[in-house]
Amino acid sequence: MAFDVAQALRDRHGENFELHGQLMNPQLARVLKTLGFDRFYVRGEGAYLYDDRGDRYLDFLSGFGVYALGRSHPALKQALHQAIDLDLPNMVQMDCALLPGLLAEQLVARAHPGIGRAFFCNSGAEAVETAIKFARHATGRARIVYCDHAFHGLSTGALALNGGKEFRQGFGPLIETTEVPFGDVDALARALAPGDVAAFVTEPVQGKGVNLAPDAFWPAAQELCRRHKTLLVMDEVQAGMGRTGAFFAHEHWGLQPDIITMSKALSGGYIPVGAVLATDSVFMSVYSSIERAMVHSSTFGRNQLAMVAGLATLAAFDDEDIVDRARRTGVAFEKALQPLVERYEMLHQVRGKGLMIGLEFGKPTSRSLRMRWSALEAMRTALFSQMMVVPLFHRHRILTQVAADNMNVVKLLPPLIIGEEEVEYFVDALDDILRDAHQGPGLLFEFGRTVAKSSLRRRPRPVSAR
Ligand SMILES: Cc1ncc(COP(=O)(O)O)c(C=O)c1O
Fold first, then answer.
1. Does any domain span residue 360?
2. Tens digit of pLDDT for each residue in 44-87?
């Protein structure tokens, strides 16, 4: 019998967490249940998710930055339906299909003039792996320099560039890398000086913590790379595609990286895709002769559905002026959040660029609040930011995330299509929760109650073998 997705979703409704708990990563199911995030979502549209009770959630996580255009964008759906109905000759492999060429043309045209070619793959991590290989080949050097707090994916090459030790533990030994503090020109100069570094791989705005380097760092970093013949690799997987109010975030500093990695939003949220843009000379080093035509490739790399998702996404970006819209909304959002920094001692900073925003919480100045803060932090580092995320979800039905382990930063990564209504709703919700956090222990009790209630819920029933 043909698979009927609607029927399957109806028949097995509500078994989600049991299935994950028993057959997949059990800890994910566990943590979501503990926080009371175990909802049964049935639909997504625009900036909103809907659950089986008909409740609506404002999605300020957007699939870790995938849904720049929001969910279920009609133009993307139409293009993908059309592509399937055309019975395209997909992945012939011994072929140069048109659609990958069209997407390469679009992406190269949007990059700086030094970028000449594109390689397609399936994810952000795979794009980073490609960048590492290309840089090593083009320079004949092995070492990669990366920044503390960096995140470039979790495959073994990308893991060697991860600023979070907890991610790496137990997975070594990894490739030769050197870590430098993000934004520290002198440290970068020291790391590049021996002349054995293939690439400096960096995010233009760091996702973990939403960290920005001083403006002056970027031209200096680029100059150092040029001087030491190290390639500059900009990982635009998260910050790229309009997220920061420019198509590529590195445009804010007028940079001309040798390699650019992309993924997430290019998929339109439908078909996984990754892209690596690079100079001609990098490409011609890797693909230097006819024998090397397949030296780096990936079975699903030029999947035509992914190419259609990318092309339709870029067309919608242009039609709806998404990049400038994100810039304008970002400015208005930060302006609306700033008064809360003045009003609430525990909100220390609002930072970011465009619609990549970090809310940093920290120790209050007044004595009574300081005691409450210290008691919380003694229970678990960065518990306060978790205490923000949970009531934002339960009271106000807004989905956000803590920016990184052990960091009191809540990250906002909304779809780029949000407007005044969503900004106002979020600011009011945050105001409400911060007011409670500064008034008494009520919010802490509410948080404790949510966690306790979730952990007391019935034990998962066994998954039926059907
Ligand atoms: C900057 C950056 N690079 C790479 C990745 C890895 O992407 P993926 O999860 O698609 O492998 C991420 C994912 O969050 C990212 O933010």
1. yes
2. 999 999 999 999 999 999 999 999 999 999 999 999 999 999 99
Domain count, the chain: 2
Ligand 1 atom closest to 207 (CA) = 16
* d(CA 303, ligand 1 centre) in Å: 20
Instruction: Give nearest CA residue, ligand 1 atom 10.
Output: 124
pLDDT for residue 98 is more than 70: yes
AA identity, residue 442: G
pLDDT the model gives residue 458: 44
pLDDT computed for residue 464 by the predictor: 39
Atom of ligand 1 nearest to the CA of 128: 4
Identify the residues whose C-beta falls under 6 Å from ligand 1.
64, 123-125, 128, 151-153, 203, 207, 235, 237-238, 263
Tallying the residues shown for the chain, one arrives at 466
Sorted by sequence, the CB contacts under 8 Å of residue 383 that are 6+ apart come out as 376, 377
Q: Which CATH number fits the domain that encloses residue 312?
A: 3.40.640.10
Last residue of a domain, one of 319, 349, 371: 319
Report the C-alpha gap between 405 and 402 in whole angstroms. 7
Residue 466 counted as domain residue:
no
Of 127, 262, 139, 123, nearest to 204 by C-alpha is: 262
* pLDDT of 366 above 80: yes
| DSSP secondary structure, 2-58, as one string | ---HHHHHHHTTT-HHHHHHHHS-HHHHHHHHHTT----EEEEEBTEEEETTS-EEE
Q: Whose CA is nearest to atom 3 of ligand 1?
A: 152
**Across 405-421, average pLDDT:** 95
State pLDDT tens for residues 141-156. 999 999 999 999 999 9
| Ligand 1 atom with least separation from CA of 274 | 10
Protein residue closest via CA to atom 7 of ligand 1:
124
Between 443 and 315, whose confidence is greater?
Answer: 315
Domain coverage including residue 417: 23-72+322-456
| Alpha carbon of 128 to ligand 1 centroid (Å) | 8
